Amino acid sequence: MTPDALALQTETVAAWTALAPAILLGLTGLALLGVDTLWPDDPSNAVLAGVAAAGSILSFAVTGWFLVAGTGQASTGGAIALYGDALVVDGMSLFFTLIFTVVTAMVVVAAYDYLDDHSHRAEFYSLTLFAATGMAVMATANSLATVFISLELASLPSYALVAFLKTDRGSVEAGLKYFLIGAVSSAVLAFGISLVYAVTGSLVLGDVAAAIGTPEMAGVLGLGVLMILGGFAFKTASVPFHFWAPEAYEGAPAPISAFLSSASKAAGFAVAFRVFVQAFPLEAVPAGVDWVIAFQVLAVVTMTLGNFAAATQENVKRMLAYSSIGHAGYALIGLAALTAGGPNGDVLGASMAHLLVYGFMNTGAFLFIALVEHWGVGRTFEDYNGLASTAPIAAVAMTVFMFSLAGLPPFGGFLSKYVLFYSAIEAGFWWLAAVGAVNSALSLFYYSRVVKAMWIETPVADFEIESRPVGLYTAVLFAGVGTLLLLPGFGPVIETAQTVAATLF
Amino acid sequence: MVGIFDFTPAIVLLPFVSFLIALAVGDHLPKGGALAGITATAGSLALAIGTVLAVAGGRTYDATLYTWAEGLEAVNLTFGVLIDPLSALMLLIVTLVAFLVHVFSLGYMNDEDETGLPRYYAGLGLFTASMLGFVVADNLLMAFMFFELVGLCSYLLIGFHFREPGPPSAAKKAFLVTRFGDYFFLVGVVAVFGTFGTAAFVGSESFPALAEAALRGETSVNTFGFAPQTWFTIVGLLVLGGVIGKSAQYPLHTWLPDAMEGPTPVSALIHAATMVAAGVYLVARMYGFYAISPTALAIIAFVGGFTALFAATMGLVKREIKQVLAYSTISQYGYMMLALGGGGYVAATFHLMTHAFFKALLFLGAGSVIIAMHHNEDMWDMGGLRSKMPVTYYTFLSGSLALAGIFPFAGFWSKDEVLYETLLHGLDGDPILLAAYAMGLLAVFFTGLYTFRMVFLTFHGDPRSGTAEDPHGVRWNVKFPLVVLGVLAAVAGFVNMVPVKKVTGLKIDFLHKWLEHGYAGLTVEHYGELLHDFPHYGSAGLELSPLGPGAVSLGLALAGAVVAHRLYNVPEPVEHTDRLGEIKTVLYNNYYQDEYQVWIANGLTRSIARAANKFDGGVVDGVVNGVSSVSLFSGSRIRRIQTGVVSNYAVLLTLGLTALILAFGLAGGWFV
């Protein structure tokens, strides 16, 4: 294995360049602060949004290039471990970074309009970029220490971003709640890490895996594993650590809701996938520490609770928040359907691919909410009545998102959900797929309510939609086109995801 | 090298293109798209002739053109072309009849100023294309798909005059009744795939070959727990469901008389070349599969013989000329089925060919008469047309002589061979075949009777209405197809004069020779072996002179003709049907077949449907609605957990985690 060789480059470059996507995101965040410092009075919104978008798109491009070129993947010598195995760049980390960067790009482009009449824009953009940096590091974290640090790096800016609308009671309250729950969760995570360290004597995932075979202190190890699971459940908004999510998503500025529910959730899964698969491999964990069953419980409870609660919401944004919890339940199948020696790469890869598609459709849906908030239209289903007559293009995009989230063809969400359930069945967990399918059927109810309101109902009051914000429209349409194109383009996505996932086992 | 077989797809595609043209720009074309149709079918005819010549040169062709669904471990679904003597012959028949029908339509539709001509010619084009696609199909699934297209086209064309009350109802009936049969066919197709993993007609991996090998114990296939013989019979009978529907055999024949509501050229096409012929052709196409099943053969023969007699008796009392022809079609296809069931593969093909010519002729002749009679079809209003339309009369007479089976017209030779083969195999000791033969023989008499009743009532005697005294003239476009077919009806039988061969020793059974070459698994010899090995046809080694049976059937046909002559060839014929008393009513009402089928549809199906609807509305919907209200209710409960108080969240979160830890700890024995 030649870990410090980058593919397709004639000269051997330093291994740290494999971290370029994360570094680019971080530098962009710093650059934004620099811009703010140079023009403290009135930094141009366009410049800030431009820098943020350019940075995230560049990072996206580099990630894509790495992924295609095979950096850190089997074709060029396998994963690249850095800094004493604290970080590792491999196919999975690149795949997830792809999700974070594309969501970040959409969010900052949309925020250009959303922040039009707000101050402290530079802070907004730089915090977003720093959070994205944290997520990119989360995807590469290969030691429980870096896991914790990067998770905090992603979380702390998020708390501030949720509370960004300082004059809005809802936003501030949501930020505080998010922070408090986050603090509890971080404590649980840190405690869990310490217990695992106590049993195994190591924080590096590979060493943990090597040391957990000893049966004594299985109880302490199990406690630690479950507490770590709890910490990740917070990040992915899974039951019972989901309480912050509906409040935070509803109170936060809509682009931040999009960011948190898509990118941040995916980051939680990235780190959960790596930690559980690499540090606690099923073949090695002692009996009684069967974390797969815990994930099965969480998956079923999370998808059921999310969908059931979403079905009764009156507020579209809150409905989306619960639907986001439901989707966390689907994605948990990636860990819940693992078996020693089963088609684990397929299962995990399907979950990753679903998160990618979800990154498009869910971000798009929240950005549509941002668009509606920008117009000043209300937040309930009734307020959306007849929206299609005044904003048909955006309504078409929202329809695409809704049907794709529900898993209907011909949209990307159909195939990703199908492959996810199919791989669960393949792994022998038909009942997980069945619960997922039932929940999907239920989800169609509340997703189609939005569509019905927009297209079929007659408006209760006249809309006053004067503007067609360029940035928001661009982001929404980009997400819509992405959701559509991921149906024909799903083949390479799922192949890549399943290949890179298979190398983890 | 580009050979004639490379153009085989064009035979199918040309009429399809004419369909597209007529549909798209038919309104702007002269004659409403007729010329496109005539050109296309003429082109197809030319290519079919070329194909026949190539097959006559000993060449055959089988190619998969397009795989439209590729199974990973399962089957591949393909479109392909199979050209062997049988399909080449059928191509020739279909393209010839379709071409002549297109020409005739100029006289029947264009000259009569019908509206909706583009729709008509589009329908004809698609109809022809579907049938040709069916004929060249090299696997059962493709055959099924084109079979269905044929059904769709018949629906469209029978209901052509959709503003009148009759045609739409007849079209629906034709569609539904044949669909009922096709339902079994579809199940059969799936069964064939499930059993053999292939639906190909030809090759060592084709399903007839695999079935034969399985019966001979050389290979094994999935027979779903049945004995192979039983299972193959079941599958064969399932496919036969489609055949019985399309070829209008008892009890699914009821759609065909109603289908007379369609324009007469369409009737000619349906009866002679396309729709109805499809069923019999399908059995011939996969004859290797039926030949191994004695039960299926016996059922085919019995149904055929029964239908032949049954339909012929109903034809006796009809008043409309096309109705008589409709029942004669049912009856004649009964003969073909009789031949197939009785082991007369060549005889069936032969009768299929001669029937195509003389029945197309009779329908077109009837069409000519209908033009002349200003679309009055009642034979009792006709009479004396002989002198006014001699071309129509003499060609119609040629067709009638062929239909009645009078020596030496085409129908005599083919029907004689049908009966002879059945008798020969029946005498081996097969009472079912003998019974079927007896019914077929009896039907010969009735055929002669109803045929000449029709001829005499239409053309002889004195005119019985004003229109008949001064009929509307017809032009070349009507006479030309009539003459072509009239000649064929007279001479087509000479291609296979088996009795003459047996008596004189001359090798003039050209059709036998024709069907003897080609793919090894699709030849007459191979079928002969199968019939010998499985149902034991001809195993007794009986020798039977063809002269005796031939003389009997000719005598019966002549007797029927003579009776018709006595009763109806008088200046002022009267209805003799009243003498039949009660039987007349029964015959007039077609043995109450429609009534009981309507009762099945209305009384039985509808009540079952109602019960199913009740089940769906009550139980299924109830469960669904129950689930949704339970979901919404529990959703609103779950919502209450979200109190908005952050300390509650912290408590719940901690309790949740604790519960998880406790459950796992207890289960995993952490606290020991």
TrEMBL record, chain A:
The chain crosses the membrane at residues 13-35, 47-68, 92-112, 124-141, 147-166, 178-200, 220-244, 256-277, 289-308, 320-340, 352-372, 384-408, 428-449, 470-490. The keyword Transcription regulation does not apply. One of its GO terms (cellular component) is membrane. GO terms for molecular function: NADH dehydrogenase (ubiquinone) activity. Residues 141-443 form the NADH:quinone oxidoreductase/Mrp antiporter transmembrane domain. Signal peptide: none annotated. Keywords: Membrane, Transmembrane, Transmembrane helix. GO terms for biological process: ATP synthesis coupled electron transport. It is found in: Membrane. It is a multi-pass membrane protein. PANTHER family: NADH DEHYDROGENASE. This is Oxidoreductase.
From TrEMBL, chain B:
GO terms for biological process: ATP synthesis coupled electron transport; electron transport coupled proton transport. InterPro entries: NADHpl_OxRdtase_5_subgr, ND/Mrp_TM, NU5C-like, Proton_antipo_N. Residues 68-121 form the NADH-Ubiquinone oxidoreductase (complex I) chain 5 N-terminal domain. It is found in: Membrane. One of its GO terms (molecular function) is NADH dehydrogenase activity. Pfam families: Proton_antipo_M, Proton_antipo_N. This is NADH-quinone oxidoreductase subunit L.
